């Protein structure tokens, strides 16, 4: 057994952290307060290979695999998870283009994303169906050589800033529930597509979350990704891929909580002693540190297994589930250790606390993961 990261992965980890430390902090406060998306920073990150780094080199990526991308989401989230989200999610949706798309689709879309020229959005969730992934209603009907798409999506990361979207559509409404869906690439500037940037989020405020309406949107049938009727399974595969990266976000945010807390308890005095000398503070720091190391093990192993051809998607789901819990509890402890100072925006922990909650909501809620894992552990 070898627990060492390769020198390439270590370099990627360190370079990502340096990039984030250098570029994010001047933007953090304003982007969080004004809910500003950081388009230019995505371009800069792409220039150093951080966008779509998991995409193989032949399609313009850095070929750093799943573990490499998890190291990226970890390090950017250690500095500012919301700004970092804009960087890694610029390729969100491309996973299925790589795994199921035609050679032409891969060559058309993936290199542009990796260069930071195009932003992708994965448009799946609908106003009336989120967790119920087979409950989506957006309809794509064949007409001549085209699909005509009508329906509504909600909470779509990057949509208002995107150049194209991977859209989950019903193409075969009479088929069995899980065979009704297909994935279709829709350029965002196609006639009939309207996006609306949603404001007022609790956290992750510098990311773009949007509603999307499709009103008889016409795209060529050649934009179908993979096989007609296989969209449900393709989407499950996409989540299997991306869960490790969200778990990387959880890890980075939890580390930031611990780092800020350690700094604070060393200098804050109470009853004539530093806060860190009290057992109750040590209990909180210890729990954060132990959870972080356990989470690191899950994330890196899940990523490593994917890269080595023996993916264990249950482990990825465990990493995301445990990651969400760890991030939320670490942020809670971090605020507690800061006392009322932690409740004010002068200290970063209040933002960590707001940002953390999304990690138990998107890409499968905590409850959805419990359902999946609960079934799995009962298998023989
Ligand atoms: C900032 C942000 C970014 C996002 N980005 C994207 C994106 O890029 N693309 C995209 O498609 N979506 C995106 N989403 C949407 C997100 O993935 C969904 O909101 C999420 O999957 C939950 O769906 P829902 O909100 O419809 O909740 P619901 O499915 O209505 O669930 C509500 C509650 O009920 C629980 N629940 C549901 N079913 C069951 C059940 N059978 N048993 C027990 N409990 C259950 C859920 O766990 C949850 O607690 C994003 C959301 C946010 C907030």
Descriptive labels:
380 residues; Butyryl-Coa Dehydrogenase, subunit A, domain 1; Butyryl-CoA Dehydrogenase, subunit A, domain 2; Butyryl-CoA Dehydrogenase, subunit A, domain 3; 3 domains; four-stranded antiparallel β-sheet; 50% helix; globular; binds flavin-adenine dinucleotide
- Main beta-sheet annotation: 4 strands, mixed
CATH homologous superfamily annotation of the largest domain? Butyryl-CoA Dehydrogenase, subunit A, domain 3
Total count of domains: 3
Query: Helix- and strand-based class?
Result: alpha+beta
Q: Tell me the total number of β-strands.
A: 10
Shape: globular
Note the beta-strand portion.
15-25%
Radius of gyration: 21 Å
Query: What are the segments in which pLDDT stays under 50 over at least 5 consecutive residues?
Result: none
Overall pLDDT metric: 97
List all distinct small molecules, including ions and cofactors, that are bound in this structure: flavin-adenine dinucleotide
Elements, N to C (H/E): HHHHHHEEEEEEEEHEEHHHH
What's the number of helices?
11
